[in-house]
Amino acid sequence: MQYETIILELLSRIKKLEEEVTMLKEIVGSCDRVNDQESEVDDPIIVENRRAQNSYTKMTDEMIEICYKCGKKLNDGSNSADMADMIVDKTGMNRNSAIMYLYAVSSLLSGTVFKRAISCKALRKYYDMIFNEYGSAGLKKAIQATRLHINYREECGLTADAIEELCDEYQCKL
Question: Are residues 45 and 110 located together in one domain of the fold?
Fold first, then answer.
């Protein structure tokens, strides 16, 4: 009997929360429409900056390439904060993501583990750039670092199937 009362109470709370979520979505939608109307008279640079602050920015080839170049500098002793700020200024990339990618590139070049995930697209480009610039020895270090990353992910209970396939693909090129 007591469980039924608790369940009914929880269901009524869920229903109320669903109603509040619907109401909030309507409010947000109306605010977005007002912002869109206001932005027609705003300065285009301000509008673009507002969009950049409020939305997820997809990783572009430009971001991948500049992270590689700056990651090489980081590997040579440059300051990661300065490099990240430069990447953000040039590309609009999220600063935390820039730092993650900088350290990943540095680890790929040195053959050490990196603990934050990067996209397969970026990893493929990094392998190609490392191979073109450092040859087979550089690519071996990059694959070694990636395998260490895969082991780290597995220890954390995460999968890395696509990254592992990419490692195997490039291992065959050596």
Answer: no
